[in-house]
Amino acid sequence: MRALVFKRYGKPDQVTFADIARPVPMSDEILVQVHAAGLNPIDNMIPKGTFKPILRFQLPATLGSDLAGVVVEVGSRVTRFKPGDAVFASIFDLGTGALAEFALVPESAAALKPANLDFVQAASIPMVGLTSWQALKERARLKPGQKLFVPAGAGGIGTFAIQLAKYLGAKVGTTTSTGNRDLVGSLGADEVIDYKKQQFEEVLQDYDAVLGTVRGDAIEKSLRILKPGSAVVSLIGPPDAAFACARGMNFFMVFLFGLLSRKIIRHARKGGTAYSFLFVRPDGSQLAEIGELLKAGSIRPVIDKVFPFEQAKEALAYLEKGRAKGKVVVQMK
Fold first, then answer.
1. Domain containing 201: what range?
2. Which residues in the chain come in under a pLDDT of 70?
3. How far apart are CA 88 and CA 105, in angstroms?
4. Which of 20, 56, 249, 302 has its CA 20 to 30 A from that of 259?
5. Are residues 93 and 216 in the same domain?
6. Are residues 306 and 247 in the same domain?
7. Model pTM?
8. Tell me, what's the pLDDT at 12?
């Protein structure tokens, strides 16, 4: 079967198409014929070796984390799915990839595709949906009436997180460019800061939670808009010791990540704020709940551009420019 793989870390020219063996599902897995694969920024970071100390791949490895497609084969212990079912899933951090004609998916990671979404729309959801769900519901424990700040509201994470926060009854502040004000407003953003004209930390105040999505000093600045008892959930780091412990890393890595996050944790504590780093995990039951929100129209997919499979490398390059409004998706068939 055809797949987009990377042969070794470090160089963009190591990402290439290859013919590899069609995988065979283990007892608790389903084999999915991939119809579409959603791209995420981490898909560009992995081949560069950015997450080499954290993520383990057997090289050459297939790229991609999000998929939607049709089940063609099931393992002997699978009970929730059968051949012919349309499903969507995140297979991030599972050692396999979605940018291929077929992909292995643990039964526990998959959910039935919402009937009102096509495969492209469904493939755009898993990682941003699960990330937002785990950050806002599990970590920040966002409640009705609270205020959430989501920088870069027009991006893949931003467009989903704004909608989920509004569904949870929160008020949302975000940053974006002038051209994207209408988009984030249509998703429910209450306070919109044009980052080219204003500094968000000088305008926003009394927020309860921040979803860290922008590199640089944005997280440190965001501490100024928070009130005591608030939460910062960072998706871009620095990783903390709790993250290293949760992944079963050795003492050195726990110590290293503790060192890396010490400054931001200290600053956060001064203002009575809790800092944590989130690495999304695949979860089919959460994805099924997200699917119900999509089915009901409470949340809608936001897709910037769709590329054919043969242009998957161009799709990754386009995503890396950082200008996409919503998600970039690769369509297999």
1. 128-277
2. 12
3. 10
4. 56
5. no
6. no
7. 0.95
8. 67
